[in-house]
Amino acid sequence: MKCQVCRGPAVIDVRRHNANFCQEHFLRLCRDQTARTITQFSMLSEGDRVLVAVSGGKDSLAIWDILIELGYEADGFYLGLGIGAYSDTSAGYARRFADERGLTLHSEDLLRDHGFDVPHGSRAARRAPCSACGLSKRHRFDEAARRGGYDAVVTGHNLDDEAAVLMGNVLHWQTDYLGRQLPVLKAQHGFPRKVKPLVRLTERDTAAYCLLRGIDYLVDECPMAVGNKHLSYKAALNDIESDSPGAKHAFYFRFLDQAAHRFVDHPPEGEAVTDMAPVSPCINCGAPCSNEVCAFCSLTMRATAAVPIEMGATRRRKVSR
Ligand code: FES
Ligand code: ZN
Ligand code: ZN
To answer: Atom 1, ligand 1: which residue's CA is nearest?
Structure first.
Protein backbone atom coordinates (compact mmCIF):
# COMPACT_ATOMS: atom_id res chain seq x y z
CA MET A 1 0.00 0.00 0.00
CA LYS A 2 1.64 3.22 -1.19
CA CYS A 3 0.91 6.87 -0.48
CA GLN A 4 -0.78 8.37 -3.50
CA VAL A 5 1.18 11.60 -3.07
CA CYS A 6 4.79 10.50 -2.39
CA ARG A 7 4.66 6.73 -3.13
CA GLY A 8 6.15 6.05 0.32
CA PRO A 9 4.60 3.43 2.63
CA ALA A 10 0.97 4.33 3.39
CA VAL A 11 -0.52 4.16 6.89
CA ILE A 12 -4.19 4.60 5.99
CA ASP A 13 -6.59 4.01 3.14
CA VAL A 14 -9.35 6.53 2.49
CA ARG A 15 -11.88 4.64 0.42
CA ARG A 16 -14.10 7.57 -0.49
CA HIS A 17 -11.06 9.16 -2.15
CA ASN A 18 -9.96 5.77 -3.49
CA ALA A 19 -6.47 6.57 -2.16
CA ASN A 20 -3.89 5.65 0.48
CA PHE A 21 -1.71 8.10 2.39
CA CYS A 22 1.46 8.15 4.46
CA GLN A 23 1.37 9.90 7.83
CA GLU A 24 2.55 13.25 6.53
CA HIS A 25 0.17 13.35 3.61
CA PHE A 26 -2.81 12.09 5.58
CA LEU A 27 -2.33 14.87 8.14
CA ARG A 28 -1.96 17.33 5.30
CA LEU A 29 -5.16 15.98 3.70
CA CYS A 30 -7.06 16.58 6.97
CA ARG A 31 -5.78 20.16 7.23
CA ASP A 32 -6.38 20.88 3.54
CA GLN A 33 -9.92 19.52 3.66
CA THR A 34 -10.65 21.62 6.73
CA ALA A 35 -9.13 24.76 5.20
CA ARG A 36 -11.13 24.14 2.03
CA THR A 37 -14.37 23.86 4.02
CA ILE A 38 -13.60 27.06 5.92
CA THR A 39 -13.04 28.91 2.66
CA GLN A 40 -15.92 27.37 0.73
CA PHE A 41 -18.49 28.34 3.34
CA SER A 42 -16.80 31.60 4.44
CA MET A 43 -16.64 30.24 7.96
CA LEU A 44 -13.73 32.24 9.32
CA SER A 45 -11.69 35.24 8.26
CA GLU A 46 -8.10 36.02 8.98
CA GLY A 47 -7.74 37.53 12.45
CA ASP A 48 -10.96 36.00 13.79
CA ARG A 49 -10.83 34.91 17.42
CA VAL A 50 -12.58 31.59 17.70
CA LEU A 51 -13.93 29.57 20.58
CA VAL A 52 -13.81 25.80 20.14
CA ALA A 53 -16.46 23.76 21.96
CA VAL A 54 -14.29 21.06 23.51
CA SER A 55 -15.61 17.77 24.87
CA GLY A 56 -12.36 15.84 25.27
CA GLY A 57 -13.32 13.54 22.37
CA LYS A 58 -11.47 13.06 19.09
CA ASP A 59 -13.45 15.51 16.97
CA SER A 60 -13.21 18.57 19.18
CA LEU A 61 -9.53 18.00 19.95
CA ALA A 62 -8.76 17.38 16.27
CA ILE A 63 -10.45 20.59 15.13
CA TRP A 64 -8.76 22.59 17.88
CA ASP A 65 -5.38 21.19 16.81
CA ILE A 66 -6.06 21.77 13.10
CA LEU A 67 -7.16 25.37 13.67
CA ILE A 68 -3.98 26.10 15.62
CA GLU A 69 -1.94 24.45 12.84
CA LEU A 70 -3.75 26.61 10.28
CA GLY A 71 -2.75 29.72 12.25
CA TYR A 72 -6.04 30.67 13.93
CA GLU A 73 -6.26 32.17 17.37
CA ALA A 74 -8.40 29.48 18.97
CA ASP A 75 -9.34 29.06 22.63
CA GLY A 76 -11.39 26.20 24.05
CA PHE A 77 -14.52 26.03 26.16
CA TYR A 78 -15.47 22.94 28.15
CA LEU A 79 -18.86 22.43 29.77
CA GLY A 80 -19.07 19.86 32.57
CA LEU A 81 -22.36 17.98 32.21
CA GLY A 82 -22.23 16.00 35.45
CA ILE A 83 -22.53 12.62 33.71
CA GLY A 84 -20.54 10.72 36.36
CA ALA A 85 -17.11 9.35 35.52
CA TYR A 86 -17.66 10.12 31.82
CA SER A 87 -17.64 13.86 32.52
CA ASP A 88 -14.71 13.69 34.95
CA THR A 89 -12.62 11.76 32.42
CA SER A 90 -13.55 13.95 29.46
CA ALA A 91 -12.63 17.09 31.42
CA GLY A 92 -9.19 15.57 32.09
CA TYR A 93 -8.52 14.98 28.37
CA ALA A 94 -9.56 18.51 27.45
CA ARG A 95 -7.44 20.03 30.22
CA ARG A 96 -4.35 17.97 29.38
CA PHE A 97 -4.58 18.83 25.68
CA ALA A 98 -4.72 22.55 26.50
CA ASP A 99 -2.01 22.48 29.16
CA GLU A 100 0.46 20.49 27.06
CA ARG A 101 0.15 23.04 24.26
CA GLY A 102 -0.13 26.19 26.35
CA LEU A 103 -3.66 26.88 25.05
CA THR A 104 -6.45 28.67 26.88
CA LEU A 105 -9.32 26.46 28.01
CA HIS A 106 -12.31 28.13 29.66
CA SER A 107 -14.55 25.83 31.60
CA GLU A 108 -17.89 25.80 33.32
CA ASP A 109 -19.81 23.14 35.18
CA LEU A 110 -23.59 22.75 35.00
CA LEU A 111 -23.92 21.46 38.56
CA ARG A 112 -21.50 23.89 40.17
CA ASP A 113 -22.53 26.94 38.19
CA HIS A 114 -26.19 26.31 37.39
CA GLY A 115 -27.40 23.88 40.03
CA PHE A 116 -28.24 20.81 37.97
CA ASP A 117 -26.56 18.03 36.04
CA VAL A 118 -27.78 16.40 32.83
CA PRO A 119 -29.00 13.06 34.26
CA HIS A 120 -31.07 14.54 37.09
CA GLY A 121 -31.91 17.86 35.52
CA SER A 122 -33.28 16.33 32.33
CA ARG A 123 -35.48 13.96 34.32
CA ALA A 124 -36.78 16.75 36.53
CA ALA A 125 -37.49 18.91 33.49
CA ARG A 126 -39.01 15.93 31.62
CA ARG A 127 -36.65 16.23 28.69
CA ALA A 128 -34.53 13.56 27.02
CA PRO A 129 -30.96 13.79 28.39
CA CYS A 130 -29.48 14.57 24.97
CA SER A 131 -32.03 17.33 24.46
CA ALA A 132 -31.23 19.00 27.83
CA CYS A 133 -27.55 18.49 27.12
CA GLY A 134 -27.72 20.00 23.62
CA LEU A 135 -29.75 22.96 24.79
CA SER A 136 -27.33 23.63 27.69
CA LYS A 137 -24.31 23.39 25.42
CA ARG A 138 -25.74 25.75 22.82
CA HIS A 139 -26.66 28.33 25.42
CA ARG A 140 -23.41 28.20 27.39
CA PHE A 141 -21.19 28.17 24.27
CA ASP A 142 -23.06 31.18 22.87
CA GLU A 143 -22.82 32.98 26.18
CA ALA A 144 -19.09 32.21 26.53
CA ALA A 145 -18.47 33.53 23.01
CA ARG A 146 -20.42 36.73 23.72
CA ARG A 147 -18.69 37.28 27.05
CA GLY A 148 -15.23 36.65 25.62
CA GLY A 149 -15.77 38.71 22.45
CA TYR A 150 -15.13 35.74 20.15
CA ASP A 151 -16.08 35.99 16.48
CA ALA A 152 -17.29 32.42 16.10
CA VAL A 153 -18.07 29.21 17.96
CA VAL A 154 -16.46 26.17 16.33
CA THR A 155 -17.80 22.67 16.90
CA GLY A 156 -16.27 19.33 15.93
CA HIS A 157 -19.26 17.92 14.03
CA ASN A 158 -17.96 15.65 11.30
CA LEU A 159 -19.41 14.12 8.13
CA ASP A 160 -20.83 11.11 10.01
CA ASP A 161 -22.64 13.41 12.45
CA GLU A 162 -24.09 15.65 9.78
CA ALA A 163 -25.11 12.81 7.46
CA ALA A 164 -26.84 11.02 10.38
CA VAL A 165 -28.71 14.17 11.42
CA LEU A 166 -29.70 14.73 7.81
CA MET A 167 -30.96 11.16 7.55
CA GLY A 168 -33.09 11.60 10.68
CA ASN A 169 -34.50 14.89 9.45
CA VAL A 170 -35.29 13.49 6.02
CA LEU A 171 -36.86 10.31 7.37
CA HIS A 172 -39.30 12.44 9.34
CA TRP A 173 -39.35 15.32 6.88
CA GLN A 174 -38.51 17.80 9.59
CA THR A 175 -38.34 20.73 7.25
CA ASP A 176 -37.76 23.19 10.09
CA TYR A 177 -34.60 21.35 11.19
CA LEU A 178 -33.40 20.91 7.62
CA GLY A 179 -33.08 24.68 7.54
CA ARG A 180 -30.54 24.49 10.34
CA GLN A 181 -28.33 21.88 8.71
CA LEU A 182 -25.86 24.29 7.16
CA PRO A 183 -22.23 24.01 8.28
CA VAL A 184 -22.23 27.73 9.03
CA LEU A 185 -24.86 29.78 10.78
CA LYS A 186 -24.21 33.47 10.53
CA ALA A 187 -24.14 35.72 13.56
CA GLN A 188 -27.47 37.41 14.11
CA HIS A 189 -29.61 38.93 16.84
CA GLY A 190 -26.80 38.62 19.38
CA PHE A 191 -26.07 34.97 18.60
CA PRO A 192 -22.46 34.32 17.56
CA ARG A 193 -21.54 32.75 14.23
CA LYS A 194 -21.40 28.95 14.47
CA VAL A 195 -19.25 26.84 12.22
CA LYS A 196 -18.50 23.16 11.60
CA PRO A 197 -15.21 23.00 9.70
CA LEU A 198 -14.85 19.17 9.98
CA VAL A 199 -17.80 18.27 7.77
CA ARG A 200 -15.51 16.88 5.06
CA LEU A 201 -13.82 14.46 7.49
CA THR A 202 -15.29 11.26 8.92
CA GLU A 203 -15.04 9.89 12.46
CA ARG A 204 -12.45 7.45 11.21
CA ASP A 205 -10.41 10.35 9.82
CA THR A 206 -10.49 12.33 13.07
CA ALA A 207 -9.60 9.24 15.12
CA ALA A 208 -6.65 8.56 12.78
CA TYR A 209 -5.66 12.22 12.88
CA CYS A 210 -5.52 12.17 16.69
CA LEU A 211 -3.60 8.90 16.72
CA LEU A 212 -1.00 10.16 14.24
CA ARG A 213 -0.69 13.53 16.01
CA GLY A 214 -0.27 11.86 19.43
CA ILE A 215 -3.48 13.42 20.77
CA ASP A 216 -5.01 11.51 23.67
CA TYR A 217 -8.79 11.61 23.66
CA LEU A 218 -11.74 10.04 25.40
CA VAL A 219 -12.75 7.03 23.31
CA ASP A 220 -15.94 6.14 25.21
CA GLU A 221 -19.25 7.38 23.90
CA CYS A 222 -21.51 9.27 26.27
CA PRO A 223 -23.44 6.70 28.36
CA MET A 224 -26.64 8.76 28.03
CA ALA A 225 -26.56 8.34 24.24
CA VAL A 226 -27.16 4.57 24.37
CA GLY A 227 -30.22 3.71 22.31
CA ASN A 228 -30.16 7.12 20.67
CA LYS A 229 -31.63 7.08 17.13
CA HIS A 230 -28.68 9.12 15.92
CA LEU A 231 -26.40 6.11 16.53
CA SER A 232 -28.64 3.80 14.53
CA TYR A 233 -28.65 6.26 11.61
CA LYS A 234 -24.86 6.31 11.76
CA ALA A 235 -24.74 2.52 11.68
CA ALA A 236 -27.12 2.40 8.69
CA LEU A 237 -25.03 4.96 6.82
CA ASN A 238 -21.86 3.00 7.58
CA ASP A 239 -23.44 -0.06 5.98
CA ILE A 240 -24.32 1.93 2.89
CA GLU A 241 -20.87 3.51 2.80
CA SER A 242 -19.08 0.18 2.95
CA ASP A 243 -20.87 -0.97 -0.22
CA SER A 244 -20.73 2.42 -1.84
CA PRO A 245 -17.74 4.51 -0.73
CA GLY A 246 -18.47 8.22 -0.97
CA ALA A 247 -22.23 7.80 -0.40
CA LYS A 248 -22.20 9.77 2.87
CA HIS A 249 -20.31 12.62 1.30
CA ALA A 250 -22.67 12.72 -1.68
CA PHE A 251 -25.76 12.55 0.56
CA TYR A 252 -24.69 15.52 2.68
CA PHE A 253 -22.91 17.71 0.16
CA ARG A 254 -25.55 17.31 -2.53
CA PHE A 255 -28.16 18.25 0.04
CA LEU A 256 -26.14 21.41 0.72
CA ASP A 257 -25.78 22.14 -3.00
CA GLN A 258 -29.22 21.27 -4.21
CA ALA A 259 -31.76 21.34 -1.40
CA ALA A 260 -30.66 23.16 1.76
CA HIS A 261 -31.60 26.59 0.43
CA ARG A 262 -35.24 25.50 0.23
CA PHE A 263 -35.46 25.15 4.00
CA VAL A 264 -33.41 27.99 5.45
CA ASP A 265 -36.40 30.15 6.27
CA HIS A 266 -37.92 27.54 8.56
CA PRO A 267 -35.84 27.25 11.75
CA PRO A 268 -37.12 25.13 14.65
CA GLU A 269 -39.71 26.84 16.77
CA GLY A 270 -38.37 28.31 20.00
CA GLU A 271 -34.75 27.47 19.29
CA ALA A 272 -33.64 29.60 16.41
CA VAL A 273 -34.48 33.16 15.75
CA THR A 274 -35.22 34.19 12.20
CA ASP A 275 -35.03 37.64 10.74
CA MET A 276 -38.77 37.77 11.35
CA ALA A 277 -38.85 36.63 14.98
CA PRO A 278 -38.99 39.28 17.70
CA VAL A 279 -35.85 39.20 19.83
CA SER A 280 -35.48 40.55 23.31
CA PRO A 281 -33.06 39.73 26.10
CA CYS A 282 -34.03 36.92 28.47
CA ILE A 283 -35.25 38.62 31.65
CA ASN A 284 -33.14 36.24 33.69
CA CYS A 285 -29.78 35.92 31.90
CA GLY A 286 -29.88 38.56 29.17
CA ALA A 287 -29.34 36.09 26.31
CA PRO A 288 -31.26 36.91 23.13
CA CYS A 289 -34.50 34.95 22.92
CA SER A 290 -37.95 35.07 21.43
CA ASN A 291 -39.82 34.61 24.74
CA GLU A 292 -39.53 36.38 28.11
CA VAL A 293 -37.28 33.68 29.51
CA CYS A 294 -34.81 31.78 27.34
CA ALA A 295 -35.00 28.00 26.92
CA PHE A 296 -31.90 27.41 29.06
CA CYS A 297 -33.19 29.49 31.97
CA SER A 298 -36.53 27.75 31.85
CA LEU A 299 -34.74 24.36 31.79
CA THR A 300 -32.64 25.49 34.78
CA MET A 301 -35.72 26.57 36.69
CA ARG A 302 -37.53 23.30 36.08
CA ALA A 303 -34.44 21.19 36.71
CA THR A 304 -33.58 22.89 40.00
CA ALA A 305 -37.15 23.44 41.24
CA ALA A 306 -37.63 19.71 41.70
CA VAL A 307 -34.37 19.39 43.62
CA PRO A 308 -33.60 22.11 46.16
CA ILE A 309 -29.90 22.64 45.86
CA GLU A 310 -27.33 24.35 47.98
CA MET A 311 -23.71 25.00 47.32
CA GLY A 312 -20.74 22.62 47.04
CA ALA A 313 -20.72 19.00 48.13
CA THR A 314 -24.14 19.29 49.73
CA ARG A 315 -25.49 20.19 46.33
CA ARG A 316 -24.02 17.10 44.70
CA ARG A 317 -25.39 14.80 47.40
CA LYS A 318 -28.88 16.24 47.24
CA VAL A 319 -29.03 16.10 43.46
CA SER A 320 -27.86 12.48 43.40
CA ARG A 321 -30.67 11.05 45.43
FE1 FES B 1 -24.83 15.23 26.03
FE2 FES B 1 -24.36 12.76 26.27
S3 FES B 1 -22.95 14.27 25.74
S4 FES B 1 -26.20 13.72 26.75
ZN1 ZN C 1 3.07 10.54 1.32
ZN1 ZN D 1 -31.92 33.08 30.05
So the answer is: 133
* Beta-bridge partners for 117: none
Per-residue pLDDT, averaged over 24-52, amounts to 97
The binding-site residues of ligand 1, defined as CB within 6 angstroms of any ligand atom, are 81, 118, 129-130, 133, 222, 224-225
The per-residue DSSP string of 133-173 comes to HHHHHHHHHHHHHHHHT-SEEE----HHHHHHHHHHHHHTT
* 211-to-23, 206, 216, 249 alpha-carbon distances in Å: 10, 9, 8, 23
Report DSSP letters for 171-187, one per residue. HTT-HHHHTT--SEE--
pLDDT (tens digit, 9 = 90+) per residue, 77-121? 999 999 999 999 999 999 999 999 999 999 999 999 999 999 998
Give, in degrees to the nearest 5, the angle at Cα 161 between 156 and 164.
170
Ligand 1 atom with least separation from CA of 222:
2
Pocket mutation for ligand 1, best pick of 79, 127, 131, 133 (most atoms within 8 Å of C-beta): 133
Q: How far is the CA of 284 from the centre of ligand 3 (A)?
A: 5
Please state the pTM of the whole predicted model.
Answer: 0.90
Q: Which sequence spans correspond to the domains of the chain?
A: 40-274
Q: What's the pLDDT tens digit per position in 275-286?
A: 446 688 999 999
Quick one: 40-274 is in which CATH superfamily? HUPs (3.40.50.620)
Q: Are 240 and 250 in contact (CB under 8 A)?
A: no
Tell whether the model's pLDDT for residue 139 goes beyond 60. yes
Of all ligands present, the nearest one to the C-alpha of 224 is 1
Give SS3 for 33: helix
Measured distance CA(307)–CA(83) in Å, rounded:
17
R_g of the chain computed on alpha carbons: 20
Residue nearest to atom 4 of ligand 1 (CA): 130
